[in-house]
Amino acid sequence: MTTTASSIPTTKMSSKGQVVIPENIRQQLDLEAGSQFVVLGDKDVVILKRISGPALSEFDGLIKQARSQAKASGLKKTDIKDAIAQARNEK
Questions:
Q1: Which CATH number fits domain 2-51: 3.40.50.1170, 1.10.10.10, 2.40.50.320, 2.10.260.10?
Q2: Pair 41, 47: CB distance under 8 Å
Q3: pLDDT tens per residue, range 1-55
């Protein structure tokens, strides 16, 4: 990593396509090893968007919502088991 005259961090891509995110940016965004990103590119712009699963505190609400939607659509536990069995047999 180098710093330009205007103090904007820069980085270089390795021969393997790897890019180092500057330490101050990693700290600012609370990025850790193993963080996953969606990578978008257009002309000379590359965008990294961090992706992550829901926080554990959000999980109960998501499960409640999924169960409510499943009940409203008439989905039963046996339907799910059947769908899983079918998907496993297709592999």
A1: 2.10.260.10
A2: yes
A3: 555 556 888 899 999 999 999 999 999 999 999 999 999 999 999 999 999 877 8
Q: How far apart are the C-alpha atoms of 67 and 79, rounded to whole Å?
A: 13
pLDDT confidence of residue 40: 94
Burial zone of 35 (CB within 10 Å; 0-12 exposed, 13-18 middle, 19+ buried):
middle
Contact 22, 9 (CB under 8 A): yes
Domain ranges for the chain, please list them: 2-51, 56-90
C-alpha separations of 91 from 16, 20, 87 in Å:
32, 38, 7
pLDDT > 80? residue 72: yes
Tokens 């712009």 belong to which residue? Answer: 45
Report the predicted TM-score, pTM, of the whole model to 2 decimal places. 0.51
